[in-house]
LPXTG cell wall anchor domain-containing protein
Amino acid sequence: MKKTLFALSLIMLFPIGANAETESSTADNAPAATEQTASIESPTVNSGTIESSGTVNSTVASATDNSEVKDIQQAKDDTIDQIEKETGVKKSSDPIGSEHDTNKIREMLKGETMKSIITPSEVDSYTDQQLLNAMTLCERISSDTYGLDVSGYARILQALYKDKSLSWDKIENIMNYNPSNYTNALEMIDQIDSLQAYLAALYPSNSSFMPIRQMSNQELSNVLKYISPIQEKMIGTEGDFFPGIIAWISRYAEKDEVRNGVTTSSTTETSTTESSTVTSTTNSAENKAPAKDNNDKKEDKGGFLPKTGEERRTWLTAAGVIILAIIAFIMIRRNRKK
């Protein structure tokens, strides 16, 4: 009988011990697997910089592609090209400047190179005051866009007093408003009505010299908002804004997406993209990081035992001892009865 009970106890304890060894082995290997998974999925945190599937910097850098201000020189060239096409007057390396001697003005207008634009007899038909008015307007348009040569001046003179698509009376009344006095296009929005009157007088849509598309206040505000970051970057990198603000307004007034406020220039876009990219990457890292912390907390609930599977093995050993004690107790009772 004793041998039978002892054999039965061994049979019962064997699966328990084997199971303890298996669970211990699994527990020992679990940390390595966890570490391997973490190394694949979790972002690397290095001195406060989060890196996931490539660095944030590389992601942000790619966001600056297709940028309106990525190449300032190209942006300037495109604006100048458009004004040259509209006016038929090239940006001059030798602008007419501020000439107020009417005799010299007439002399320039009668030069050989000017005969295809204006005849000597036409020059003589203009009064000295008309020549001076045209020169005043030429100086302002040069400030609004870029320097004009004598051919540009002749075209302005004709727009004022030949085809009369420009009215000096309207222009004179609004000349106190100077768009070049603003350091940023956004400041012009507060005086949008004055800007509208200025454009209507100097650059009406029917002008024979430089027409600018007529826009609503909202459309013009959208154009100014688009120009603002370009202007800010240009002044920051080059110290000035060239060509003048009116040239930029003229260029973007023809772009439906800018005029309707569908798009913004790249400085704003890049800033927003960088912010969303960093936030998204950070959130991704934070969502993964707590998982490891939670696992650590669960492992810590085991008290003072090391995290190697010993907790389960000790419990199974204790269970085996209890079973042996019960068997021994039964055997002692039977011996006493005998």
